[in-house]
Amino acid sequence: MSLDSFVEERPGYADMNTGSYKRSGFSLVEVNLAILLVALGMMAIFGLFPSGLKQADTAMSDTHAAMFADFVLNGVRANAGTITNWSDWVSLATFRSRIAPSGPSGDPRVIKDQAGTPITAQTAPAAAVQGPASYCGPVKYILEVGEVDPKRPQLRYVALWVWSGEYVVSQVSLFKPIAFLYRTELCFRGAMP
Asked: What domain range includes position 125?
């Protein structure tokens, strides 16, 4: 096989001498458009990284708050299950002291329920609550205990607003709308009079 026969077998190669080779390649405009499309695609992909990092941080905060709420509400349920004395259950102040952590005296975040009784509100780092070892930062929360229905005194509700993180508003009216709300109801398990 000679070089001449090889050149003749390749389509379009022989045409380079005749000037028809201009149709077989890409123009400069086409190359620039292809580079532009690749650059825009890469910019879009790189633009997703900050959004992905923010979503990962948000998911971690949500999980942290949910784990904390699970820890606290399970403790509240367990403590409420040990109350078998009806007078301890009916007295809201005694009930709160038996199941819920108490806030420091004079805490400006202590709010009042419909009857004017202070409701426990506390800001604490997660380590101070002695939760599972996977907690990794401060948690701010408000724990509210109250009656579900005055006609059914054997039922109580516990509402827990949780925010995972150190920097959040300290006013209750501004804190509750942005925090995660977890709620459970408790039923008296002792003998009712």
From this structure: 62-187
